[in-house]
């Protein structure tokens, strides 16, 4: 009697992994896991997996494909409601979110687990969204440059902690069309040139002085040297005009960059010092414009050549 039980147990534990069968509905299934004859997992050709089946039912063709139909309601991990509006196969489902966004070619198990994202949900700094299009956020586990620039732009305008550290971005905004990463990425790719590198920056206020809006019309890509021409340290000015510092009874001015500073002179009044700074600074800007003339946008070159330094800057 005990010997018979042992034989049955050995029979029940035969590994059937890899066996293929046809169901009574005409579907090809493959056994991908076999714990015992009463606990077998099979996979349909479209990738759908069914667990806990009896081996006898598999042999008899009684394994049925789960009935999925449109109308099923699920929720993403972030709590967004979605409805299955089309079920073609286990690996090809379509859902619609409450905002009307439709996402196709989804794996059903990902829908069940909530591992689906609404590309039009504003989840980047509370205002930006990835959108639907040809521009990915990352390639080979690396963030793309256009996404990094876009994310940084939104952070300057809508991240309060960022603005506390960089108060010059207070009241800056982004054009509504650029909330969509796909729209920004298209503009960025169209304006990016082969000779540009990581030292080229997105600028919003060279074309239009004191501009506070990032948009396709107001932005341009410029090299670090050009972008640095207009960096100001307002906290160090002590109510003096731009480019002027006080030493003793004299007002001193200089121009250039951190790596290249040129002393202009000492003056009796801040107004005199500023006038000297204005002339030197405008001349320096023209020199830089000529240096980069063949690579910068023609609009940028024109703006630099015509740039006016004002005492209210």
Plain-language structure description:
- The structure is a single chain.
- The protein has nine helices and 17 strands.
- The protein has 313 residues and is α+β, with helices and mostly antiparallel strands.
- The protein has four domains: 2-60, SH3 type barrels (Roll), CATH 2.30.30; 73-113, no CATH class; 138-226, no CATH class; 234-305, GCC-box Binding Domain (2-Layer Sandwich), CATH 3.30.730.
- Strands 1-2-3-4 form a four-stranded antiparallel beta sheet. A four-stranded antiparallel beta sheet has the order 5-6-7-8.
- Strand 6 (81-89) and strand 7 form a beta hairpin.
- The model is unreliable at 1-11 (pLDDT under 50).
List the keywords:
disordered N terminus; 4 domains; four-stranded antiparallel beta sheet; 9 helices; SH3 type barrels; 313 residues; 28% helix; alpha+beta
